[in-house]
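Reopening closed ticket. The problem is back. First fold of the pair:
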Amino acid sequence: MSRRHPYRSKKHMNVSVENLGPCKKLLRIEVPVEQVNAAFDTVTAGFQKQAQLPGFRPGKAPKHLIVKSYESQINDEVRKKLFNDSYAAASGQEKLRILATLDVEELAFGRGLPFSYTATLEHAPEFEVPEYKGLKAQRPVAQPTEADVERAVNILREQQVRYNDVTRAIQADDIAVVNYKGTLDGKPLTEEFPTARGLTEKQNFWVQVKEESFIPGFTTPLVGASAGDKRTVPLTLPADFVIAGLSGKNVVYELEVVGVKEKVLPAVDEEFAKGFGAEDLTKLTEGIRQDLKNELEFRGRKALRDQLLKALLDAVTFDLPESVVSNETRNVVYNIVNENQQRGVAKEIIEERKDEIFASAAASAKDRVKASFIMGRIAEKENIKAEQKEMTQRIIALAEQNKTSPEKMAKTLQERNAFQELAQEIIIGKVLDFIELNAQVEEVATPSPSEVKA
């Protein structure tokens, strides 16, 4: 559907808007000939002042020679000026929140002619901001228990673990060093599943003798075995196996025990505490307890904010701009892939799961983009902005994280054109603070992590 805005005289710009789809419009603009000629005169005068032509002093060359010598540059400058001025005026007149200009088609341009063109653009969604004050939500509240502290201490012990070679038979929780070969229907797994190289064969493979280690059931027959012993282990791979094609398959592993290592954890004493920079064991456990408390508070606040955000997302429905969703989807995919690679997941397995990763990323991206637009509109209504001091503090924090100077970090952000994104992050954080401050929050006691596991 188009809307035309007739102008009273030839001196007024003519604009019409056509809806092409969700968050996409076609803008038709015609700049009257009077404004076009005026732009030519202004730009030409500017060239005339600066031009240096043979036989003439600077700024004294006749206009017709200036036009002849710089015709191409003058046309480019006029076209640029007319487009920028008219596009900005038209978007203001139509109250368009333009996100991206997808295509521009010039229809007419030249001295003595109206300047007309069409612009295909993507704009921010139009919607009524949902009620964001007085939202109801619950904040989970928990306190760390002694069991939580003990579990955290054991995690620190694991960081200083030693593995001593022993000559006895394998016991539960030992480290078995094995050579293995895996087959499916008598053939190496890689014949049918090339990405399963690590599952097919390895030498001197370290595996802790626990039910869930490597593949469930893989280490169970090793209890009681000694170096030099061999075992045949038939396994049914779990339904949620990392390589989808192998889910539920019956495979057979031939194992040879190369060695046995006993896991030795350090004693929890004063020396242990000092190894982590604490004055003594009491100070270490106090610090651990405070860290756990901070973590529980962080989780409680995150759970609260997730509820508030979901309430806003559920309260309003609107179309999302395709290009913004696509860009955010790419960002989410990159983060998922990067996280998997850091966890040691093979590239082949990531490639095999690419459709699943993309589907998950697309759903997450839509929610993130929708939330971003809602937060932005709330920021406008409440006049919430990113102050220069806040930008500076964020740059300093990023510099510390990346072990560089604030000046270099600011330069990097400028080169990446990332200042707007940084400001947006600050604004969204402040909007969430505002929503939380104005919410009706009920604190609910919840069990600690150790109590949940128990």
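Second fold of the pair, where the issue appears:
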Amino acid sequence: MSISTSDKLKVEIIDHTALITIDNPGANTWDTESLPALAALVETLNADKNIFALVITGQGEKFFSAGADLNLFADGDANNARQMAEFFGKGFECLADFRGVSIAAINGFAMGGGLEACLACDIRIAETQAQMALPEPKVGLLPCAGGTQRLSWLVGEGWAKKMILCGERVNAETAERIGLVEEVVPAGTAKDRALVLAAQVAQQSPISVTYCKELIHQARDNAVGEALPYERQKFVDLFSTEDQREGVNAFLEKRDPVWKNA
């Protein structure tokens, strides 16, 4: 019996590591099923003292995850947006607070909420062909799952602004240079490399690892924690604008948006 409550998150236990595979064809998007399932899964792993690390990756060769399914936002419903923001917040904050070590094996495109899932992890391993971006403003939205906060912490304010405000997409080489990922590996090997690192975690005292992680996070969490609910609220605020509906629907209709700044 699987410990995942959703078929969109496959789980395999390998010694002391949980391997989680995002499996939602065709771009491994997050939705109202997989986000609560992620939160529940991490809580289950936290309760299992034999699990010291988790690795999360995407099914297939093209996508880690393309983020949220934008069809969910096409109607401009603010209540729906608030629910999704809360799902994203809980799911990725549970991931960030995982008791052990979390490693993202980025096997392809990590866009929007896909990259935010990677940002919530402790370590990021990217394959050479991987591409990363937070392109939400291009469709009249904003990163609502920690992107504005965790990206800034990792790469600095300048690169965070370049990626979010200018829509800059970065490749694996650039991501490693700016500190967005810790290591770049050949195509098809990120999962294996992440599992090797996860096995190294098992050589440490699990209690020591938990305490060390808490201490490393102290300065960041004190700064970021208060901002995360505000980030989600500003995401919902966008749903009172014409530009939000224009941006999402222009993307779904494969045309350029016409911004009204209203």
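Update: turned out to be a display glitch only; the data is intact. Residues 199 and 222 are 30 Å apart (CA to CA). DSSP finds ten helices and ten strands in the chain. Please close again.
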